[in-house]
User: Fold this.
Amino acid sequence: MISRDTLDLLIQASYFLAVLLFILGIKRMSSPVTARRGIRQAGLGMLLAVAVTFFLPDMGNYLLIITALFLGSLLAWISARKVAMTGMPQMVALYNGMGGGAAATIGAVALYAGHDYDLVIMGLAVLGGLIGSIAFSGSLVAYAKLEGLIAKTLRFPGLQVFNALVFFGAIASGIALLAVDGYPFELITLFFTLSLLAGITITMPIGGADMPVVISLYNALTGLAVAFEGFVLDNPAMIIAGIVVGAAGTLLTQLMAKAMNRPLSNVLFAGFGDTGGSGEEGPGGTMKETEASDAAITMAYADKVIIVPGYGLAVAQAQHKLWEFCERLMERGVEVKFAIHPVAGRMPGHMNVLLAEAGVPYDHIFDLEEINSEFDGADVALVIGANDVVNPDARSKKDSPIFGMPILNVDHADNVMVVKRGRGTGFSGVENPLFFADNTQMVFGDAQEVAGHFIQGLKSLDG
Assistant:
C-alpha cells in the first residue's frame, strides 16, 4: 500500500515530467523537421497530466469526469480527422476558445461556489475569469469570421468608446468582487457577462486579414488564464503549462505584428482589411493575362523560379499538383525555392504545414529574411494566392494601410507570374500595383486547375 506522502510525491513528479514534455514539445514545434515529434511529446505530457489528476486527494465525480473526457476526446478526434487544411485556422481558433472557456469556467465555479479564498487567490480567479472569458468569446467570433459565418465587420460611431466602457466595466465589476463581502450572485454574473461581451465587441470590428495575429493573441491570453486558474486549483502543471503557452503566444503575437510593421493596438483597433474592391483598371494600367501553358513554358526555360504561396493555394488545395509541377521543373534543371512570409495564410505557419503535407522538402522552404535578396537573381517569381505580402506599396506608398510592412520582393524578379481567382483586391481589400506591373503576367483561375495546366504545359514540351 502506497502511503499518502509517497503518492503525493509521485503526483508532483508526474506533473513535473508532464511540464518537461510540454516544454520539449513546444521547442520541437519550432521546426518543421521536429514538429511531429513535438506534438506527440506535448500530447503525451497532457495525457500524463490528466491521468495523474485522478489520484489527487479530494477528487470526486469520476463518472462525470470520465464522461466529459470521453465525449471531448471523441469530438476532437473526429473533427481533427475530418478537418481540411483550409479549415485548420478555424479549428485552431475554436480549440483555443475552448481553452479560454475552460479557464473562465474554473474561475466561475470558484466564485459561485463561494470558497473561502484569500485576496490573492480570489484576485487570480477573477483575473483568469476575465482573460479566459475574453479569449473564449473572441476566439469564437474569430472562428465565425474565418468560417464565413460572419461576413461583415461590426462598425458604428463611437464603437471604440463602447468597447472601452464594456472592457472597463468588466474590470470594475471584477474589482468590486474583491472589495465586497461574500460572493454576490448578481455581481459575479455581471462580471462574466461583461467579460464575454468584451471579447465579442473587441473582435467584431477586426478585419479578416488580421485574424492570424488575433488568433495568436487569444492563444496567449488563454495560456495566461489557465496559469492564473492553476493557482486557484493549486495545480503546478496548469501554472507552468499556462505560463509557457502564454509566453510563447505573446512572443508569436509580437513577431507577427512586427512582420506586419504594425503595433498590436493598430491591429486591434484600426479596422484594417474589411473593404473590398474589384476592377481591371488599377493604379498602373491594366492587368496582362496569359495562359497557364505559356507561363509553364516560360518557367521551363528559367534557371531559377521562386514560388510564393498564399491562402489561395490552401483554398484550392493545390499544394500537391504544385509540387508535382515543381518536381518536373527540377528534372529539367530549374532551381526551385519556396518563399514564406511570416503572416502568409490565416494562421502562423499555415503555409509551412501546407507544403509539408504535399511532401515539399524543408530545404526548399525559406523565410522572408533568408530569400528576399534572391529575387533579384530569379528568372521567375510565381505568386499563388498571395496578395498583401507581395504588395510593393508597402515599401513606397506612405498612405497605404500596409506601408512599412516587410514584403517579399517578388517585383525584383525578371518575370512575375500571379495565379489568382479574379481581378478583385482579395481578402484585405488593398489594391496591389504588382498585378499591373510591366514584368507581371496574370494567370486567372483556380490554383489547382492552373497547376494542372502547368503540368500539361511541361508535358507538351516533351512531346
The chain has 17 helices and eight strands. The first strand starts at residue 281 and ends at 282. The two ends are 79 Å apart (CA to CA). The CA atoms of residues 89 and 439 lie 34 Å apart.
